[in-house]
Amino acid sequence: MLRHGGNLRQAAEQYGIPLEQWLDLSTGINPNGWPVPPISSACWLHLPQDDDGLEAAARQYYQASQVLPVAGSQAAIQCLPLLRPCGTVGMLSPAYAEHAYSWSRYGHTVVNVTEEDIASRLTELDVLLLVHPNNPTGQTYSAEQLLDWHHKLDEQGGWLVVDEAFMDTIPDQSLAPFTDRPGLIVLRSLGKFFGLAGARCGFVLAESLLLDRLRELLGPWTLSGPSREVARRALNDVAWQETTRKSLLGQGKRLQQLLNCYSLKADGGTSLFQWLQHPQALMIHTALAKQGIWTRYFEHPQSLRFGLPATEAQWQVLQQALQQLMNDLIRREEMDETLVL
Predict the structure, then answer these.
(1) What single DSSP character describes residue 21?
(2) Residues 32, 38, 41: CA angle, nearest 5 degrees
(3) How far apart, in whole angstroms, are the C-alpha atoms of residue 216 and residue 199?
(4) Which tens digit of pLDDT belongs to each residue from 138-179?
(5) What pTM was estimated for this model as a whole?
(6) Is pLDDT of 341 > 50?
(7) How many whole angstroms separate alpha carbon 59 and alpha carbon 205?
């Protein structure tokens, strides 16, 4: 299976630092997620019920006409390739790697496209799959542009699949309200903005015919009863959503500015993470890990993703670690200059 952020136990063992002493910035998950209250005992005693209000809450939150709850976006990522004959799927790189892995695994040809050549290559694609905002680059598009691409794909029987895992802080850019159109599929999740990754709750937004096919493939009870109850209550908590949206937008800017202060200028990002390319990305990742700070390292291209600290104390820990990193880099450069002389 592919590697993801959050493998903190492995880091703790590798660097010899106790698990509780780590600052995990590797996942892009809201570290101050929706506060889960006690849930009813009934959801443990009975099979999950489709008429418990979850779908209604999701339709209202996403402003979508049809939704299908699934066990996180991952369930849809693995099953959507089975709903089409093998064809050509265009994706950006880098992007969330599970998409390319799943489509190629089931016989589709995955080709890399760039933002500049998407329009000119639509005629050769059966599916265009975009992560929006992109993970890890944070790249975004206008809704008008996306809908234009969808229209052209639909005319040739193609799909536009949009993974909106990081869309919650900028909902006005979502394509969710347009997912009654054939060939337009949007994936959403409660893992990032709501910080409920452990609930494994996501939604597929699409026309009813496609959702029926996907529902048949997935089978009954795609979500556990406790996950359904937590998700329904979180989606209905408008006050928390509005407060958190404003807070995360501010924290995203703070993280960007903090990295800039230490010559780690972000090349992109969202309110939940910042991403930067750097020729010494692995060295920086390792140096921070030795201080108990876990970032997400990408080999292609050489880059790092930083998530948000949870508390003011953690912000200070990050700042001190970046200062130490900068001091070490300056000291290393001075030693190199001395050796040259």
Answers:
(1) G
(2) 145
(3) 22
(4) 999 999 999 999 999 999 999 999 999 999 999 999 999 999
(5) 0.93
(6) no
(7) 9
The answer to whether the beta carbons of residues 330 and 305 sit under 8 Å apart is no
**Tokens standing for residue 138:** 């944070």
Which residues have CB under 8 Å from 15's CB, separation 6+?
A: 289, 290, 292
Ramachandran assignment for 202, one of left (phi > 0), alpha (psi -120 to 50 degrees), beta (any other) = beta
Q: What percent of the chain has pLDDT over 90?
A: 91
Quick one: CA torsion of 247, 253, 257, 260, rounded to 10 degrees?
Answer: 140
Question: In which residue are the tokens 């799943």 written?
Answer: 102
Give the pLDDT confidence score for residue 153 in this predicted structure: 98
Is residue 92 within 8 Å of 102, Cβ to Cβ? no
Question: Can you spell out the DSSP letters for 104-169?
Answer: HHTT-EEEE--TTTHHHHGGG-SEEEEESS-TTT-----HHHHHHHHHHHHHTT-EEEEE-TT-TT
Query: Which residue blocks in the chain are alpha helix, DSSP H?
Result: 8-15, 42-45, 54-62, 72-79, 97-105, 118-121, 143-155, 208-218, 225-236, 238-261, 281-289, 312-340
Closest CA to 177 of 203, 206, 198: 206
Contacts by 238-242, CB closer than 8 A, 24 or more apart: 240/34, 240/35, 241/168
DSSP 310: S
**189: CB partners within 8 A, 6+ apart:** 72, 73, 165, 201, 202, 203
Q: Is 290 helix (H, G, I), strand (E, B) or coil?
A: coil
Q: How many CB atoms lie within 10 A of CB 263?
A: 11
292 touches 22 (CB < 8 A):
yes
Q: For 185-199, write each residue's pLDDT tens digit.
A: 999 999 999 999 999
Full set of structural domains in the chain with CATH: 8-28+239-340 (3.90.1150.10), 42-236 (3.40.640.10)
Cross-strand pairs, 277:
303
